[in-house]
Design a protein that fits this description.
Neutral endopeptidase, domain 2, 4-stranded mixed sheet, globular
Length: about 500
């Protein structure tokens, strides 16, 4: 651990000092009391003021979902909330999950194992792409240069380790070894012979190593402008001819787009080198290894435990969340907007929503006044700035309507032959198709990218909106019963940051 020193021996900020003076070490003077008392929960990798609020919200929603599932509470009048509860029941029923073991995912694993060559992948790519994770992905989103229209973005998928810089760490080999052993073990549990399991995991790591060399780091990806690289579709097709992604575009969309926005040009430039018949085994190994690690979270407790070592080694989390938390997490991940609206209505409410909105409008008035009185901006720049400021869309607490995609989700309960794995796989496929269907439709500026129970806030440059979920609009950030001065000092700082 690197020790940070301040003002010539005034303190080591990795250790609390209750006697630290503000003039010597502001950080320790302000935070030492909290640091000395804070405890990291065993099922979390860290603790902070944000995560302390999250623990409180998590406890509230876990209790509520358990009551809804048992019938102790009547379901709220929120569209598709019943589906969220059905997923919660499936996730919580570990007796059934354990009895089913790997059976729910067996057919999908066999589909990947039976792939013979690159031609086999190309001939079935649309079906495979909607069902499984690939090393590359597409997303429809508002175009950064014309936010009234949607465009198609192309990107690489996640690496095995958290970032490209992780591979330069002394612990990189150790972490990759943990991932390989975990993957091999999961595959053997699924019935794959040991030699084959080892080869799949080894090939996956080999492909990952190649992708790392042409991938941007997290720091580089923070440059949003550099992620906007539109190229004509025919050029994109040439650069991805080894897997015939041009044909994939024809199958995924009613018509091929005129251009594709490439987020990582270097990855695209090396696409045909990464994915071809010579490297087919590596692609197949990557598909199978990624699949088994993701699928394990939706299977039995034994699979859930077996998929934990890599996360534990990477992030230092001591133990898995309880099965009760697991059920809440699964339902919340698949129905986050639905549960977020429930949380916002129940624990935040319309009065607080109106109060926060009034605060934001008052702050916007101050910004406009300061821009108007500014002496170094040109009149034209000030006019544009005020126009953009006044056009800000405020998203506070929770949305007034829930995304249409949840209407499309179908959840098959256990008594009708459903299981957690098959339902989440179907929901994932529907979500992808729903996203792709937006390509030739106008941008829906009413969409929220943060659910009401998420402790965060954001500014979206493509929609010129600011979002403050209900979860962050509570103490210590905001309290409707507190003074305006207190709330401006708390949530006002966050609002100002987003503006």
């Amino acid at each position: 651990m690197n020790l940070a020193k301040i003002r010539g021996g005034a303190g080591d900020i990795t250790k609390p000092d209750l006697n630290a003076r503000i003039q010597d070490n502001l950080y320790l003077a302000v935070n030492s009391d909290w640091i000395s008392k804070a405890k990291i929960p065993a099922d979390r990798p860290l603790i902070s003021s944000f995560s302390e609020i999250d623990l409180k919200i998590e406890k509230e929603l876990m209790n509520d979902l358990a009551d809804f599932a048992s019938g102790k509470k009547a379901l709220p009048d929120i569209p598709n909330f019943d589906k969220a509860i059905e997923v919660y029941k499936l996730a919580k029923d570990f007796a059934k999950r354990d009895a089913d073991d790997f059976q729910p995912a067996q057919a999908d694993l066999e589909t990947l194992i039976n792939l013979k060559d690159v031609d086999d992948v190309k001939q079935n790519l649309a079906k495979l792409f909607l069902r499984f994770s690939f090393p590359f992905l597409f997303e429809v989103e508002p175009d950064r240069k014309n936010t009234k229209t949607n465009s198609l973005s192309f990107d690489r998928n996640s690496l095995i380790l958290p970032d490209t810089t992780s591979y330069q760490s002394p612990s990189a080999k150790q972490l990759l070894d943990v991932w390989q052993k975990q993957t091999e073990n999961l595959l053997k549990m699924a019935g794959v012979e040991e030699a084959a399991a080892k080869k799949y995991a080894t090939d996956a790591i080999a492909l990952d190593a190649k992708i790392v060399k042409v991938a941007k780091s997290a720091e580089e990806r923070a440059d949003d402008v550099a992620l906007y690289n539109p190229i004509k579709t025919n050029e994109f097709e040439e650069k991805t001819s080894s897997l015939n992604l041009g044909q994939l575009l024809e199958q995924l969309f009613e018509k091929k787009p005129n251009y594709v926005v490439v987020r990582e040009p270097k990855f695209l430039d090396h696409f045909n080198e990464l994915f071809n018949q010579e490297s087919f085994d590596e692609l197949k190994g990557w598909l199978i290894s990624t699949f088994i690690n993701k699928a394990a979270a939706f299977l039995s407790e034994e699979f859930r435990q077996a998929a934990f070592p890599f996360k534990q080694a990477t992030y230092g989390q001591k133990e898995l969340p309880s099965q009760e938390k697991e059920a809440y997490y699964k339902a919340n991940n698949l129905f986050d907007d639905v549960i977020g609206v429930y949380y916002g209505r129940t624990y935040f409410g319309e009065d607080a929503k109106a109060d926060v909105e009034d605060m934001i409008h008052r702050m916007i008035d101050v910004y406009e006044q300061r821009i108007t009185n500014n002496e170094w901006l040109s009149p034209a720049t000030k006019e544009k700035a005020i126009t953009k400021l006044r056009a800000l869309v405020l998203k506070i607490g929770y949305p007034n309507k829930i995304d249409h995609v949840y209407d499309l989700f179908q959840v098959t309960p256990a008594n009708e032959g459903g299981n957690l794995y098959s339902n989440q796989a179907n929901i994932r496929e529907i979500s992808l198709k729903h996203n792709f269907d937006k390509l030739y439709k106008p941008v829906d500026r009413s969409e929220w990218y943060m659910p009401g129970n998420l402790i965060n806030a954001c500014y979206d440059p493509q929609r010129n909106d600011i979002t403050f979920p209900a979860a962050i609009l509570e103490a210590p950030f905001y309290d409707i019963n507190a003074s305006r001065a207190t709330n401006y000092g708390g949530i006002g700082v966050v609002i100002a940051h987003e503006i």
